[in-house]
């Protein structure tokens, strides 16, 4: 995609990269490495029902590593949807010690420093990042996925 910066003003991706991602016929991930050495704590941000595909990746992480996973229900969508609650319960059943459910009211910007990696959809990241200071993401590596 060239040697230019991915970051354009407040948006993570410039227009050329965004166009490539949105027109792709296969899932696409963008990894932003902020000196990631080890992963102990991962934050999944869920804003809409369309983010349910992220549970597939959460299951893979739980089964193949010993990381602690937190699922942030940013808009209360999981709490309001029985099927999504069941998905979270199934993750907790796989490994109850490593899966944590967080509601938006329990989460603040300072919590981001507790995580090494944030995983979300690209659209969700755009919404989530607009509500937090840019400096909050300085030490956080990102994996942004478009299904």
Describe this structure in words.
This protein has about 150 residues and is of the alpha/beta class. It has a domain at about 30-130: 3-Layer(bba) Sandwich (FAD/NAD(P)-binding domain). The chain is about 30% helix and about 20% strand. The chain contains 5 helices and 6 strands. The protein has helices spanning about 15-25, 55-65, 75-80, 80-95, 120-130; strands spanning about 30, 40-45, 70-75, 100-105, 115-120, 140-145. Strands 1-6-5-2-3-4 form a 6-stranded mixed sheet, sandwiched between helices. α5 (about 120-130) links the parallel β5 (about 115-120) and β6. α2 runs parallel beside α4. The protein is globular.
User: Total strand count, please?
Assistant: 6
Largest sheet: 6 strands, mixed
Cα separation of the termini: 20 Å
Low-confidence residue ranges: 1-10
Q: Cα-atom Rg, whole angstroms?
A: 15 Å
Strand content: 15-25%
CATH arch. level architecture of the domain at 32-132: 3-Layer(bba) Sandwich
Tell me the overall shape. globular
Percentage of helical residues? 25-40%
Task: Supply the helix-strand structural class.
Answer: alpha/beta
The CATH first-level class of the domain at 32-132 comes to Alpha Beta
H/E topology pattern: HEEHEHHEEHE
With strands numbered from the N-terminus, the spatial order across the biggest sheet is 1-6-5-2-3-4
| Average pLDDT level | 84
CATH topology type of the domain at 32-132: FAD/NAD(P)-binding domain
Question: What does this entry show, briefly?
Answer:
With about 150 residues, the protein is α/β, with parallel strands linked by helices. Helices cover about 30% and strands about 20% of the residues. It has a six-stranded mixed sheet, with helices on both faces.
């Amino acid at each position: 995609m060239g040697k230019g910066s991915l970051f354009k003003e407040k948006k993570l991706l410039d227009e050329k990269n965004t166009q490539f991602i949105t027109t792709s016929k296969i899932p696409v991930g963008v990894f932003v490495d902020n000196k990631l050495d080890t992963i102990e704590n991962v934050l999944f941000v869920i804003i809409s029902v369309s983010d349910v595909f992220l549970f597939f990746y959460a299951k893979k992480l739980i089964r193949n590593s010993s990381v602690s996973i937190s699922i942030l229900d940013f808009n209360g969508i999981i709490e309001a949807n029985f099927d999504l609650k069941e998905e979270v319960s199934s993750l907790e059943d796989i490994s109850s010690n490593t899966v944590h459910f967080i509601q938006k009211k329990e989460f603040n910007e300072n919590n981001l420093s507790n995580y090494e990696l944030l995983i979300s959809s690209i659209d969700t990241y755009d919404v989530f990042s607009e509500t937090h200071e840019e400096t909050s993401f300085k030490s956080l590596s990102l994996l942004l996925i478009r299904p």
